[in-house]
Each structure stands twice: as C-alpha cells, then as structure tokens.
Fold these 2 entries.
Entry 1:
Amino acid sequence: MLDLDNFKSLNDTQGHDAGDALLIEVGRRLRDNVRDSDTIARLGGDEFVAVLESLGTDLAEARAQASKIAEKIRSALIQPYRIGDKNQAHQTSASIGVTLFGWRDMKVDDLLRQADIGMFEAKESGRNRICFFTDARQAAINSRNSMLQALKGALQNDELCLYYQPQISISGELIGAEALLRWLPPDGDLIPPEDFIPLAEETGLILMIGEWVMAQVCQDLTLMARHDLPPDFSVAINISPRQFSDATLASKIRDVIRSNGVCTGSLKLELTESSLFMDLEHAGKVMEELRAMGIGIELDDFGTGYSSLSALKSLPIDALKLDRTLVQGIMDDGRGRAILRAAVAMAKALSLKVIAEGVETREQHLRLVEEGCDLFQGYLFARPMPLDSFVAHLDD
Ligand code: C2E
Ligand code: CA
Ligand code: CA
C-alpha cells in the first residue's frame, strides 16, 4: 500500500487538474513496475495498492522479492513529473507499507490493515520509505490501544489523583505547591505521569485529563484553605502544549474557578517553551487573558529548550522555573554555575522570579540562594505527597 507524501499541498497549489494528471501518471508508473499478473488499484485520494502474486514458496525469498519491487516503485515515483505546463516539474514521493500473505489464512481487511500499519510507519519514520508490517509493530499498537482504553477508564473511575509538592520561599516558609498527576490502578502500582501523559497528549485525551486536574485542584484548594495558609499561597498546575493551544482554555479555567469559589490569585500555570513558541501571537493573547484573571504564569523546564530573550520579553510571564538538570549541574563544574548565573541574570533583567526545582541537597540550596533564586522545590524539602499528607504538612 502506498500514499503520496505531499499530494495535498500539490493539489492545493497547482489545482485539481494537475492533481488528477499526477494521479494518472502515478498509476502508469506503478503499472510499469509490476508484472501483468499483478494488480494495481487506487484506494481513494492519493492511496494506491499493489497486489503482487506468486512471489515464491519461501517466506524469505518472497520478502526479498517484495522488497525489490517496492524499491523499484519508490525510485520510479520520485522521478519528476511533467504535467500541464511542460516546463514545470512536479515532485512527489511515496510512503510504502508492505505485508506478506499466503502463509497464513487471512482476510482482505486484515491484509489492508497490516499494509496500512506499515505505511503509517513509513510516514512516521520520515516519508519516502518502505516499511514492512511486523508482529512487533502490531503488538506495540495493541499495547498502546489498551493503555489508552485503560487511561480513559481511569479518568471515569476516579483512578487519577493529584500529589502536591511544597514550594519554599527564601525565608524557608511553605508558600505554595505544584500539583502532580498520579494514576493509581485499583490492582496495581502507582503509575508516574511520564508513562501516560505523552500518550494522552498525542491522542488529545490530555484535554479531558487537564479539565479534571483543574477541577480537582480547585476542590483541593478549598480544603487547603481551611488551614493556616500564608497570604500568597498558590498551587501550580502543569499545562501541556495541546491544552495551551485549545482556544477554550481561558474560559474553561474561568468556569472552574467560578464554580468552586476559588480565588484566582491562588492558581499558577506552568507552561513549557514548546507551548509558547509554536505561535507567539496566540500565546501572548491567551496569557494576557489569563493574567487579566489574576492567574500567574511560569515558564517550566527552563534551560532545556531554546528560549529567545526577545520572545520572553514580549510575553507576560511571572517566573522562570529552572529545570532539574540545570539545578543538578551547578555543583559539578564551573560551566553549570555559569549557566545558572546567566539564567538568573536574564530573569532578573526581565523582572521575573526564579524558581529552582529538583533541589536535593543543602549545598545546592545554599548555592541557589547565593545566586539569587526566589523559590525552591525538591526532595530536600519534601517529595510530592497525597492531599491529606500535604494538609498535615501545612499544620506542621
Ligand atoms: P515537571 O513539571 O518537570 O515536574 C517536576 C518533576 O520533578 C516531578 O516528577 C517531581 O516529582 C520531580 N521532582 C521534584 N523534586 C525532585 C527532586 O528533588 N529530585 C528529582 N530527581 N525529581 C524531583 P513527576 O511528578 O514524575 O512528573 C513528571 C512530569 O509529568 C512533570 O514534569 C510534568 O511535565 C508532567 N506532569 C505531571 N503532572 C501533570 C499534569 O497534571 N498535567 C500535565 N500536562 N503534565 C503533568
Ligand atoms: Ca512542572
Ligand atoms: Ca519542570
């Protein structure tokens, strides 16, 4: 099965006639590169199928032959196309997925699905490629699907929960917390966010999870508020790139704050650079909206990406959160310390607060204080903990 790699943009820029002419030419080149007994068909759009028969009785030999023919097709399709205005050459390539049949009893649907999986992988691995379907690939897809189903179930069955990790001021006072997501399956061990957030992000489920997180933080905040909280106490929520590009983010936050009667000043959002620099204009607008609501905005994982000074200057950010790797590098050599110093100097120049995360030792803490950091978070002070422990911590 094959799919042209840039057909849509070609069709859009050169018009449908050019698109149709290209498809006809692709069909012709396919026909020219297989035997008369083989079948070529267009599945629809810019997807084609080639059914190659009698590739031999031996699996390895059939695989080698299929590979050879697919390579021939790939090379033929990448040659320039002269269509319409003959002086203008069109260029396209194809992502090809291959599966073998005849050794196992198989339905046409399964065959196409397998070829499609190969083709998807060819696209994923950079286009203009040939990928064979494998059982390992199928197993990976199955496990991803069952993880996704389990995660959807977890959201409905209250298996998600939030842990809170204290944030400490320069004077040693607990003045806030970061909300960190955990998945607690009824019959298994706690699952860390790294194991399921990327999948949620990829599939869009993060939008529902994110709404749950916001609502839960607001509920937990009303519980925390029954204890003796410092005046500027706030909880930070992690917002993933997908959530940030959701046009309804600000209004969702407004609604959840209103319905829980929470003070907006007690919420902060942690955004990563990938959220902001995808579309600076959108980012600026959303951030202004959030800020007008009184919600603090922090740039998370600072030091792992490519923040540009001018972009930072133009966005309404309240604080930079130094990444754990940066904090952990400060004791190793002069370079680590120089990078920290530069990051803090930059934050101060833009009047931003600096939060250091992943603080594990007294030495690190001392040095971060010396260098001018404002807030601290890390195992040295406390690990992320369930709400009841956190509330008990507040009374300590
Ligand atoms: P992050 O935002 O960088 O969160 C900080 C991570 O550092 C947390 O890992 C925290 O447990 C860990 N940490 C804190 N102090 C220390 C320390 O002293 N040493 C070390 N080695 N680690 C420390 P966690 O809880 O596993 O979260 C991992 C990531 O998952 C987070 O990284 C964040 O990107 C994401 N995440 C967590 N909760 C949410 C959520 O509600 N929504 C979204 N979108 N992402 C979340
Ligand atoms: Ca964070
Ligand atoms: Ca971080």
Note: The chain is about 50% helix and 20% strand.
Entry 2:
Amino acid sequence: MLNGALIGCGFFAQNQLRAWAEAGDAGIVALCDRDAARLAATAARFGIARTYDDAAEMLARERPDFVDIATTVASHVPLVTLAARAGVPVICQKPFTETLAEAAELVETCRRAGVKLMVHENFRWQAPIRAVRRVLDEGEIGQPFWARIAFRSAYDVYAGQPYLAEGSRFIIQDLGIHLLDVARFLFGEVTTLAARTQRVNPRIAGEDVATMMLGHAAGVTTVVDCSYASAQERELFPQSLIEIDGARGTLRLGADYELVVHADGATRRETVAPDEARWGPAPWHGIQHSVFDIQEHFIACLRGGREPETSGADNLRTLALVEAAYLSAQRGGAPVDPAAL
Ligand code: NAD
C-alpha cells in the first residue's frame, strides 16, 4: 500500500479523494489545507484523521510515499519545490505553473532531486478520448489530415470555482489547456498555433471564448475551440466533441458520447460513455472516471519506475501551446511556433 498526502481540500480535490478511496493499493492518509473549515469537512467526509494547515510540517511528519497537490496554480511552485526537497514523488494539478519558465525550473528541480513528477492532466484519460485514439491507432480512418476538438458550454463554472472569474487569463489556461493536451495526445507535437480570444461575459476578467488553429508536425490541422458563453438547446457540459477526417474516412465523437466511424463506405456507431452507475452521477461520471484512471497510472508508474504519460517534462509542451495561444491572440492571431518559446 502506498500512503499519500493531499494538499488543497477544495472543489476538485473531492473528486481526487473519492478516486483515492477507491484505489486498490494506494490511499491518502493525511490532508493539508490552510482553510480550517474545508480541511475539517473534507477530513470528516473521507474519514482521514491526520490533518495539517502547513504542508512542510505534513511532509516532515508523515514522510508519505507521494503527495497529491490539488491547490490552485499560484501555490504550485512553492509546494512542488517543497516536495522535491523532501524527496517525495508528486502528482500536481493543472495548470502546472503560470509561466513556462517556472515549469521548466520545477521539472529540473525534480529531476535533480530524483523525484517523479506528474501533472494531473486528466482529459486525455477520459474513456471517449481513449476510444478515439484507438480508432486512430488501428488505422480505421487512414491517415488523419484535419480535426476539430470542441468544448462549448454555458455551464456556470464560476459558482463552484469563483477564482475563474477573477484572473486575467481564463478559458485557455483553465479548459483550453486540456483540449490542447488532447490535440497533442491524438496527433503529436505542434509546430504552429494561431489564436483569437473573446470575452463575452462582462462580469469576468479574462477571456471566455478561444478559437485556435494548430499545425501538427505530422501534417494534421486541428481547430481547438472552447467557450463558456455558448448557451445551446442542450447543455453538454463537460463533454468534448471531436471530429477527425482521414484519408479513408471520418470519425465523429458527438453528444452523449456517440462515436460514429465512417470508413471505406461503411458506418459503425458505438456509445463510448463511462459507466454512469459506477462513476456517476451524470454529468460528472466522465470526469470522475478519468481522475481514477490518471491516479492509477501515477501509482503504476511509481511502482514500475516508469515515466508518467503526462510527466512534468511532457507537460512543458502542453504549457507551450497555452503560451503560444495567448501570444498569438495578443498579436492579432499571428501564428506562433511553440518550440520557440
Ligand atoms: P479551490 O480553490 O476550490 O481549492 C484549493 C484549495 O487549496 C483551497 O481550499 C485552499 O485553501 C487550498 N490551498 C491553497 N494554497 C494552499 C497551501 N499553500 N497550503 C495548503 N492549502 C492551500 O480550487 P479548485 O477549484 O479545487 O482547483 C484546484 C486545482 O484543480 C486548480 O489548479 C484547477 O485548475 C484544478 N482543476 C482541475 C480540474 C480537472 O478536470 N483536472 C477541474 C477543476 C479544477
């Protein structure tokens, strides 16, 4: 059994703790939060007796096998550095850091300390996204040449995460980051990115709409578009919709996790929804399932000495896409080479 400690008992940590409680050979034995009420409520909810208001003290006393950092981005640099110094492997929430330079430094700090570092980049672990990747890997639609990864919603994310309304950066850093990571997961590295951003909701500080065009080294063109200002007849939050055109046919991941593959003149349909009875309630089942799977992957990597799929080093490339998007938007949509950042 691997004993973990978790820092940050907020909105999303509840999903992480639920997944840790269901894990086979790992669990959380100590919790830390500066907010006493949140700490107490979370400790009671998950039956975790050992609680701290100071992360350094928790790591020193508990000497955990790993630490799960579930705080918001501003605290990631000090907390990951603390874990590296204590020699404790880290899984840290996205966005990993606010700047690419800080992220590169943290990756180097952990490398020098010999500490495994993974970023909790869970969208690529969603069952429907894995199903899309399998279709591509099996060559069913031939060589892909064009794709769209879309997330358009009017769900009130500000109710559960009020800080999202306050930052000068919003949808690319918070949600687009997941979709950009999925684009890398499906089609590989990106050599050019052009973006436009908009703010539709006047009550928030950052952008709530972003449209990005990515050129991948492998030749695919991907449109990544996201919005938290799009009220539709049916609210599909938190579903990502994917369209891919390939040399032999097309793939569509539509509403309600319906996957339609049309290749060589024949069409097949499949529902690739996560099991609602196991991971529900809807609409959170897709998220909950991906959190469980990414945490299982982290533990398997710790046990097997493997590099996690979304290691800190890997995540630098996703963060470079985020930076490239903001830079391109600032330059009126001019293309940016993420590798040059
Ligand atoms: P939140 O504000 O609800 O919770 C963060 C908690 O961390 C707070 O309770 C705060 O008191 C605590 N905290 C902050 N700094 C601390 C420190 N130094 N020591 C101890 N406690 C500290 O935030 P949230 O909405 O749960 O988001 C947390 C992170 O999870 C963010 O980075 C967010 O982007 C990410 N997130 C990811 C997903 C996903 O699908 N992967 C979804 C939602 C949020």
Note: The chain has two domains: 2-115, 124-280+318-340.
